[in-house]
Write a structure and sequence with these properties.
Elements: E1 5-8, E2 11-13, E3 18-19, H1 22-35, E4 38-41, H2 63-69, H3 74-77, E5 83-85
Parallel strand pairs: 1-4, 4-5
Antiparallel strand pairs: 2-3
Protein name: Aminotransferase class I/classII domain-containing protein
Cofactor: pyridoxal 5'-phosphate
GO molecular function, one term: 2-aminoadipate transaminase activity
Length: 86
C-alpha cells in the first residue's frame, strides 16, 4: 500500500531544529506527484529561522536580499495542488 499523506515540519523539526532545503522540497514534491500523495506542511517555527554565523546579518540586507534569503515553503513551490498548510 502507498501512503496517502506526508506530514512534515520543514523548518525547525525536532529534535535537531534543521530546515529542509528548497531542493529537498522540490524532490519531495516530485515524489508526491509520482506516487499520488498529499503533503501536509506544518510550519509553527517558520518565523524562527535563524541564520548561520557566517551569513550576512539580516539588518545589512536590502529588502530584496532578505526575501531571497528565506526558505521557500512547500506551499510556495506547489504547482499541482498537493500541499495543505496548517
Amino acid at each position: 500500500k502507498k501512503p496517502k499523506l506526508l506530514y512534515t515540519i520543514p523548518t525547525g523539526q525536532n529534535p535537531l531544529g534543521v530546515a529542509q532545503t528548497v531542493e529537498h522540497k522540490k524532490q519531495v514534491l516530485q515524489l508526491a506527484d509520482e506516487h499520488d500523495f498529499i503533503i501536509l506542511e506544518d510550519e509553527p517555527y517558520a518565523y524562527l529561522n535563524f541564520q548561520k554565523h557566517t551569513e550576512t546579518p539580516v539588518f545589512d540586507l536590502t529588502p530584496e536580499q532578505f526575501i531571497n534569503s528565506l526558505h521557500g515553503s512547500y506551499n510556495s513551490l506547489d504547482k499541482t495542488g498537493r500541499v495543505l498548510r496548517t
